[in-house]
Amino acid sequence: MLADAKPRFPPRSHLFAPCSFEIPISFEIPILKKPGQLFQNNMAEIQRSERACRDNERKFPSAPFVLELRRAPQIAIAQMPTLLAKNAEILVTMDGQRRELKNAGVYVEDGFIKQVGPNEELPAKADTVLDLSGQIVLPGFVNAHHHLNQTLTRNLVAAQNNNLFPWLQAQYRIWARTTEEASRVSTLIGLAELALSGCTTVFDHTYLFKNGNNVDCQIQAAKDLGVRFHASRGSMSLGQSQGGLPPDDCVEDEAFILKDSERVIQTYHDASPGSMTQVVLAPCSPFSVTTSLLRDSAALARQYKVRLHTHLCETRDEERYTLERYQLRPVDWMETHGWLGDDVWFAHAIHVDDDEIRKFAQTGCGAAHCPCSNMRLGSGIAPIKKYMAAGVKVGLGVDGSASNDASNILLEARQAMLLARLQIGLLPPDGPRKYFLLSQSHPVRANEWMTAREALELATLGGASVLGRSDIGSLEPGKCADFFSLDLHTIGYAGALHDPVAATLFCAPQSAKFTVINGKVVVRDGEVVTMEMKPVIETHNRCASEMANALEI
After folding, report:
1. Are 61 and 165 within one domain?
2. Cα gap 116→122, rounded to integer Å
3. pTM of the complete model
4. Are 347 and 490 contained in the same domain?
5. Short-list 476, 481, 477, 469, CA closest to 520
6. Quick one: 22 and 149 in the same domain?
7. pLDDT category, 40, cuts 50, 70, 90?
8. DSSP string covering 247-305, please?
């Protein structure tokens, strides 16, 4: 008897001639499941099975074959979510041609832009449709430097009128009391405020992990809100007893820092296109970490191909510190430890000379310009136009919410434009040297002016380049679907629509009407819609009060 044959007494079907056995042929017919459609049998599979049965009848004429069709498990055919944003009055692409399109929109599939163009060229339907009539659309802004936990100590009385070092000393121990709960809600508050101002990608520099604070809860908060997040495993290891600025009880053991840094990278870093989470290693500053931690952090980052970040050249106090302790200016000191490269960017970078600017350009270092914080702490004015002329990568950062005290990236872009203009009115050496005797409006000084479009480019493409991202910063096919819109027909823009693009910075910052991140709506009609924020605000205020009051007791 043939293998797998089974006795048959009597025949079960008149279609088969009587015989003593049958050979079953079974086929599983997949049932295809498509969203919004009924299950459908795959008729092609049924026909293929029938042909197989006839072929076997020819091979074994004496053995009837029973075609047995079974329903296989349902196969879910995943349909990519789509989004159509249409009817924008102006759409700023920031693409290679810097096109600014009228009556245009964006079509998105699975978090990536598929089409950008006039309304009539876009698909008519999508899972989500946004009518952006009367609005301007811009690429999502990129925040290249922030301290989200510092939303807990905004407007602290003891730190209102200080420069950097005493400002830090007034807050170190309060920040050391940050619990996991406080860290989560402060991250949510900062990210929500950023999203409401058009920010879609955020780098956060947390460097004080005491009392239960951890990177993990921040990353989860960003996922819950829906914001593209570059988290840092920051660090401080040089306490006051060793000549550093922070108290000894606010620093960590270096071996633990490196071990936890590796854990965070292995657990969370995603370098793939469209990544929503990446990890950066970020020792805090020249006056709060040891040289060994700088070197070891750089080696670890390059082993895992993640980026490096720290504060540098923020104040004259810092410059004095490295000169007295190491007999080197901050940039030269960082260079001796392998911290100049195209995988590095520095926050602030204010007090640099022309040679140091050339070093940044030659090595590919980037800078995060934080004008509001620099003004608030009296730190100085970064030479942004010089950086741009030299080819240095420059992005914008809102910096610590306790030194700003806002998390508004649109406000930051406006301040970047205005502060650069203030600088051209200063006398040397603080202002431009070559033509300072000529009027600022003289044609030969035209390139000294920061234009609105240049500032917008810093906030988009500039920030993307600083973070090492080629998939964000502009609206073009293949890029991440990150963008926001502003309603142009409001009191704030009335009379300014001669140039709607420039109006976004020359006029007072307005809240985003819509903010879309990874093809998903995070802000709708000026409200965060991915999370109920009222209880977050209440918890945040409670944590802020408890932390500040505990220090006073």
Report:
1. no
2. 8
3. 0.86
4. yes
5. 481
6. no
7. very low
8. -GGG---HHHHHHHHHHHHHHH---STT-SEEEEEEE--TTTS-HHHHHHHHHHHHHHT
